[in-house]
């Protein structure tokens, strides 16, 4: 290899190392920004949101160090070897020293990138009716958030608080297997209580959506497709509505398609099919525990009665909550949903 | 569930869960960590100090490919997606995990 090739190789390797270090910085920064935006949306002040997000990251430098160690081939050591080799060559050939020195300086300068944070907090609204009136019920302890998942019996009791709650639903998520043996597809499902679509204020683009009657014990399972899944999997074939699809080996009638752009209420989690919570043990008998008091897996979203303030509703739900075998010290809080 | 109540992610299962989550759609690190918390019904919370090294290792091994893209909120984030090799690894590990979990449950319930 000629000296020129060797120098080119050193420069390339430095650039590559610099790029991955820079990229790691950018990636961790994006992580903190997204975490901070979520915390701010949950009601933390911007400063506190940022502090919590940094806490969640668990330190920039330790994380970076662990990533470096995880990389194969100890790239940095390799680069170091090449640099040393190149420097020895440079000493022997003084005319190239200046070039090598400039390359090194660029590499070092770029490696000490500043880790900065932005205060951008954006609330993307769910594609539902009147989204600013839609609230999520989360559990808190003091000012700290302590989870957002409720059991099916708890959701039932919360939904009955008609003095403050106009409509309320619980929603959980899991994968289901769709199709006949040999052509089974793993698909993401939302499991919801009967007031799901009504609370969100959505209208079907085809057929009908789920209603409270679908949640009643003994009601036969039915499924609603998201428009995206209907398009991707069935090319918007209208004959699918009224037909059955095999879910976990059981033929389930497709009753309708939800509006375009709506893919569920879970963060980063696109639902393809939506079923009632009570359909779950019918399709998967081993999932019977999901309807019991021991499984906290449903997130709760609600709309308040028109004249009811958030504080008033929180106080009322806190009273109910204390009767629901809630852990000591916890209280419910109403927050805008994460999107 | 408070952070103290979370379970440690059993050794060797984090990569399986990452591959499973990414088999659905490409996602960035934060999305993966959120999804893991939601899908585990709040029982797991992955520490970024474990998540990112795993992502980089999987990328170096050719199981994942990464690309910078704008997020829905107009940030830029590094999205990871499964390669064909990653998909094969997922299938193998998934089958192995199903056997392990079946075997352990059988022992616990049969003894």
- End-to-end Cα distance of chain A, whole Å, is 55 Å
Mean of the pLDDT scores of chain A?
76
User: How far is the N terminus from the C terminus of chain B?
Assistant: 32 Å
Instruction: Tell me the series of helices and strands of chain B, N- to C-terminal.
Output: HEHHEEH
User: Strand fraction band of chain B?
Assistant: 5-15%
Name the average pLDDT of chain B: 86
Radius of gyration of chain A: 27 Å
Instruction: Give the overall shape of chain B.
Output: globular
Task: Enumerate how many helices of chain A there are, as a single number.
Answer: 11
Largest interface: A-B, 46 and 37 residues
Approximate helicity band of chain B: 55-70%
Q: Main sheet of chain A, how many strands, which sense, barrel?
A: 12 strands, mixed
Strand order of the largest sheet of chain B: 1-3-2
Structural class of chain B: alpha+beta
The largest β sheet of chain B comes out as:
3 strands, antiparallel
Total number of strands of chain B: 3
Helical element count of chain B? Answer: 4
Low-confidence stretches of chain A are: 72-79, 90-125
> How many β-strand runs of chain A?
12
How big a fraction of the residues of chain A is strand? 15-25%
